[in-house]
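Running this now, will post back.
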Amino acid sequence: MSGGAFCIICGSEPPLTTDRLCELCFRKRTVLSNMPETIQQRRCAKCGFMEIRGGWSNMDSDGIADLRIRENLVLEERASDLQISFSVQPIDDRTSRLHVEVSGSIEGHTFENHHSPLLQTSNAVCTPCTRKDGDYFEATVQLRSAGRKLNEAELSRIRETLDEIINSMEPNPMFFISKEGPVQGGWDLQLGSKSLARTWGRKLAKSFGGTVKESSKVVGVNDGVEVTRLTLSYRKPAYSIGDVIRHKKALWIVDSWQKEGPILRKIARFERTGATWRDMESSNVICSKSEQSMVQILNRDSSAAEIMDPSDFKVTTVALPYDDDGLVDELRIGFIDGEWLALPVSDMR
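Update: finished.
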């Protein structure tokens, strides 16, 4: 035999791979991919969530099959141009067979493998369900109103925002409510997640104004780490956007919210001002937005308009608001200090 290169297994002449094997010997010694014959997984018998890398999540059959294949498929490190496809063959509620096709190139040689592992599911109870059954909670949210009780309509609107947040966020098994109900002066809820409580608090302050205060209490130690519970207290102001209030002897409309307090818009003339929550404690709601009415203008001149009184349907006259442009055909009015008063237009329509 000449002194040239040869296969170190069978002695064949080139072409050879980088480890000096001919194609036949290279294929005998090289495997593109490996998978176990059986893959075990756990599913919560209560909520149906699957255990995924120590957590729990809701996934469809194709999604969970794709994940298990990625977790269990071992590829030859030199492989390139990989293509992987699969199909799921259900056998029963707890067993499926996965059909996995793998192709790729190793040192210029094309390899193909087929795997058919069984995907077996055993029942378990996920951490969130265990916590729900045990009345577990991480945060208490207290809903209150400044200086008065929250009425049912307010509570309903506030409570709806929590459902909106949960539905708009990525599913999280810890986003649950352990307990809720009326308390003296408001409503309390126990939530499974501190982050959910904080997100809701920000939403409430942005939507309804008011203040949010937090406090934490250590309730135990887990693996050397202190376990705390959050108490988040939301205090809604006694007024809402659009309400007419008396503040420092003048009439104002609550225009918008900022962190320190509301932005007010004066009724008598163009003037805006910011007020703190403390400044507003002595203010009174004179005419809430729900008590205001939109009415058609029957006749007008430069300073007044004839409208139909919503209470008795008689024609009455009101002074036009300072920002009237002479073009609108309706007004927002409120019954204030014994008479109907037209309110500035702004964004109230």
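The two ends are 98 Å apart (CA to CA). More later if anyone needs it.
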